[in-house]
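Record type: monomer structure entry
Structure origin: computed from sequence
Chain ID: A
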Amino acid sequence: MSFLPAFMFHFRGWKAAPISEPLTSNRLLATLPCMETSINSLKEALKNAERVAVLTGAGVSAESGVPTFRGADGLWKNYQATELATPEAFAKDPELVWEFYNWRRGLIAQKACNPAHTALTALERLIPDFTLITQNVDGLHLLAGSRHVLEIHGNIWRARCTRCGKETMDRAPDMGRRPTCAACGGLLRPAVVWFGESLDPRILRQAIEAAQQCRIMLVVGTSSVVQPAASLAFTAKSGGAMLAEINLEKTPNSDFMDIVILGKAGEILPRLVEGWA
């Protein structure tokens, strides 16, 4: 069985099979009197968990001022990001695509890590087995000091040669109109996953394994609509993990969560790590 069908079978199995009572049930959630109780309950659960996985999305980066590049934020020179972040656009006009990405790099270079990033770095030091899975490409989790990070959509500060495939890290805000590979002279492209491209199967496999093995999964700052990242919570749930969602508003996955805390990640996540013995 190939890797991707195996993942889809695992996901369908969660929907079809009955699941034993989770660590914190939705019935208990209904009795929680306030956000304070939810935060304290989640904090105590984290203190007793040896394996934790976290999935982060654009909401975490937005608290640092990073544009989402979707909707109105994605408009650049009358182009939508979805028109330029494709292999077809790069094949047609690589200079235009690089102009767009140099603009993005210049914006992101001015942004700093926020308290959500630093809290996750602290949580990693407290949990024996910790995996941070991010949909964000801005590299801010790494900049904050997180070490076990799976960047499933790539990293805007990395470039990949279209000829030899070598990847390099380059934090220059502007890489020029047609950057080339130092090793072979081939044309470089941003090492991010564009629309219409598949995720790196090695990284996706590691993300799925982390979700399968964790005892708690935090889903932070994501709308839970982009696949396959949105399905990772179901994978964790099928393995008996507690699910906790931290987001500004409810998402399509909120009803499956054991704990839902509405608010800014930069205000809530620090509360989960403060005062640990």
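Annotation 1: The chain has two domains: 21-66+113-153+199-277, 67-110+154-192.
Annotation 2: The chain is about 40% helix and 20% strand.
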